[in-house]
Every structure is written in structure tokens, then in C-alpha cells.
Design goal:
- The longest helix is centred in the middle third of the chain and has 16 residues.
- 45% of the residues lie in helices and 14% in strands.
- With 88 residues, the protein is an alpha+beta fold.
- A hairpin with a 2-residue loop joins β3 and β4.
- The strands form 2 sheets. It has a two-stranded antiparallel ribbon with strand order 1-2. Strands 3-4 form a two-stranded antiparallel sheet.
Length: 88
């Protein structure tokens, strides 16, 4: 794993507000591309969401990140954003 790149993404995520993390997540929904940089980005995003005081159980399962639907943050809990519903 490219520690320098992962650490750069971690720093970005640590500095982000909760809403910015939600925005970062939502930008990845539906993206089927894959590569090393994206895997590091998503790992850093998952780590930071997990650290925050928010219920992220609808998107984090067994250490993975479900990118099927957009989410919104309501009272410290991530909920699916029905205004941008996607199939699947």
C-alpha cells in the first residue's frame, strides 16, 4: 500500500466536516471505476466515517463500504437520501 498517498487521503478526511465526508461519499456512489488511488481514498473515507460520532451502519458492513445509494446526515445518523434514489 502506498502509505504516502493513504496518509494524504487520511489527512484530507480528518480535516473535513461531517457534511464534507457525506459529500465525499456521495460523489463515489455509482462510480464503477477502480484503481489503487481510489482504494486508498475509500479506505481513508471509511476509516474517518467510522471514527466519527455518527451511526454509519447503513453503509459500513464487515469493514467494507456500500456505495449503492446516496446518504444524508440527520441527527448524527446516516440515512439513505430518498431524493436521489438509485436502483439496487
Amino acid at each position: 500500500m502506498n502509505n504516502e498517498l493513504l496518509n494524504e487521503f487520511r489527512e484530507t478526511m480528518q480535516k473535513a466536516t461531517d457534511q464534507e465526508l457525506v459529500n465525499f461519499f456521495n460523489k463515489e456512489v455509482g462510480n464503477t471505476g477502480w484503481g489503487n488511488a481510489r482504494s486508498y481514498y475509500l479506505a481513508a473515507l471509511r476509516e474517518e466515517i467510522t471514527k466519527r460520532d455518527m451511526d454509519s451502519s447503513i453503509i459500513i458492513h464487515e469493514g467494507g463500504l456500500s456505495l449503492k445509494r446516496n446518504v444524508k446526515l440527520i441527527n448524527g445518523k446516516l440515512e439513505f437520501d430518498d431524493s436521489d434514489k438509485q436502483d439496487g
